[in-house]
Design a protein that fits this description.
By secondary structure, the protein is mostly helical. The protein has two domains: 348 residues, no CATH class; 109 residues. The protein is built from 18 helices and seven strands. Helix 1 packs antiparallel against helix 2, helix 1 runs parallel beside helix 3 and helix 3 packs antiparallel against helix 12.
Length: 490
């Protein structure tokens, strides 16, 4: 597992360097800040190439490449399509973006007045570029289909699809419900979030109402930056979580795009910020984590947001008095320093499902987590689990094992085949037994010969024994249970 953490660090670092290299054509300072923030962040503080982190990385690289492609357009837009397809695999609702993209291309091609819209006159909105993009996405889609249907027949696929769509823990909701939960998650993100967004709405309303009057745009910019700094500070002083601090600069970028009508900012907003912001909505639709999910997904939007904010600052205050320029530079520097320092501190101190980094004092010397520092309590639990798993490992009559535990690493310490649809079963959910039964109905060859039940979930022991015709053995030291076929324990 330590090796995979190193792998995540390498991939994340490479992606961060790439974003800097490509975005510096807009602003070197902004590109440096955005790439540093992107490197420092790990979704939920977990250093793993999961669907969360891969979705963010792939979409970010796709948008950055799309915004900065200047030569070898065929190859670059095909690569954009490949990266986009990978992000769709991580969050299927992102497929909606493809149809929006297609609609914009059709609008430019068939509606005469559309070419007068500068953004639709962009290279990215041409039919040729769209086809290059689609070809890259099609390659990944084809490989995915080939992979699926080499593992199962079409009949098995349709049978499997039903239980997935009918999962009682993932009920179908209307679009309006998703919009409602999304808005409530954002407006309830911290103690002053409601006041912050109301203030921004009033600020935007004032800008639109007084647009033709002599109210400098720089004033709106300074006020919105100051408000965002306060909003950000409340994330660091209140209920602090590494995901949350990623979000605050994103709404500020939207305000800056409204204030600054220059083509680079508008292009960054429409072809970068909006798709990335839509990803936050898509992930919210697939998750029950509310603002935890929304803020995590906003990492892609954050990269674009920093560039928009820096460009807008330059454009809005370039002709202002020195005092205004100094004020803007001071507010912006303070904002980026708070953002970067806060994220760096949270990245250093945050440990998923643990209290703090300082509590991780014991280095594991064996097993799949060898080399990782943990708390003394976790070390004891880890070693006890390894000893218990040895009984399964050394039993020649066991070929498939089901692990009912919140510790997803257990199956990695056992050479027997895993008898589960996922290492993360969520045993505390009432739907878990039903899910397992449907899985075994579709895959009877996966029935377990033994089941490991962690102490926390031992109330499931009777159901397990009756369902799989097994007998339980409890370990007195831990309270964990292993259910096996009737035999004399040696």
């Amino acid at each position: 597992m330590l090796t995979f953490r190193y792998l995540y660090t390498f991939v994340n670092a490479a992606a961060s360097l790439y974003t800097f290299y490509r975005l510096k054509c807009f602003t070197t300072a902004g590109a440096a800040i955005s790439s540093i923030l992107f490197f420092l962040y790990a979704p939920f503080g977990i250093m793993a190439l999961s669907y969360n982190s891969l979705g963010i990385i792939c979409l970010t690289l796709c948008l950055v490449t799309l915004l900065t492609a200047r030569s070898c357009l065929k190859m670059q837009y095909a690569v954009c399509g490949v990266l986009y397809a990978f992000s769709v695999l991580c969050c299927p609702y992102l497929i909606i973006l493809y149809f929006v993209y297609a609609a914009s291309v059709l609008l430019r091609r068939y509606v005469r007045q559309a070419e007068k819209i500068a953004l639709l006159n962009d290279n990215a909105a041409t039919t040729k570029i769209f086809l290059y993009f689609s070809s890259g996405a099609a390659v990944i889609a084809a490989l995915f289909v080939i992979f699926v249907f080499t593992k199962m027949t079409f009949g098995q696929f349709t049978k499997t699809l039903g239980p997935i769509l009918d999962d009682p823990e993932h009920k179908s909701y209307t679009v309006f419900h998703h919009i409602k939960t999304y808005i409530l998650a954002i407006f309830g993100s911290n103690k002053i979030s409601g006041l912050y967004f109301i203030a921004l709405i009033i600020l935007v309303g004032a800008f639109i109402f007084y647009k033709g009057r002599k109210v400098p745009k720089s004033l709106y910019f300074l006020i919105s930056c100051a408000l965002t700094a306060i909003y950000l500070i409340f994330f660091l002083t209140g209920e602090t979580y590494i995901n949350f601090i990623i979000f605050p600069l994103c709404p500020l970028a939207a305000v800056c795009a409204l204030l600054d009508s220059s083509l680079p900012v508008r292009r960054l907003f429409f072809y970068g910020w909006l798709p990335a912001a839509f990803y936050t909505f898509c992930l919210n639709m697939t998750s029950n984590q509310l603002f935890y999910a929304v803020s995590s997904a906003s990492a892609s939007a954050l990269v674009i947001s920093v560039i928009i904010i820096v460009l807008a600052a330059k454009n809005l205050v370039c002709e202002e008095k020195k005092e205004i320029k100094y004020a803007a530079a001071g507010v912006l520097c303070a904002l980026f320093i708070i953002q970067t320092a806060g994220l760096a501190c949270l990245r250093y101190s945050s440990v998923f499902w643990e209290s703090s980094m300082s509590a991780q004092t014991q280095k594991l010397e064996v097993g799949t987590e060898k080399g990782i520092y943990v708390t003394p309590e976790k070390e004891q639990m880890y070693l006890e689990h390894l000893r218990e798993i040895e009984e399964i490992e050394n039993n020649p009559k066991v070929s498939k094992v089901l692990f009912i535990s919140e510790n997803t690493w257990l199956y990695l310490n056992c050479s027997k085949k895993s008898a589960a649809y996922s290492a993360w079963l969520e045993p505390e959910q009432e739907a878990m037994p039903e899910r397992l039964l449907k899985y075994y109905e579709l895959n009877p060859e996966k029935y377990p010969d033994a089941v490991f039940i962690e102490r926390k979930y031992t109330p499931l022991t009777q159901w397990v024994c009756e369902t799989f015709n097994l007998s339980p053995t409890q370990f007195p030291a831990t309270g964990d249970v292993i259910c096996r076929k009737n035999e004399v324990r040696q």
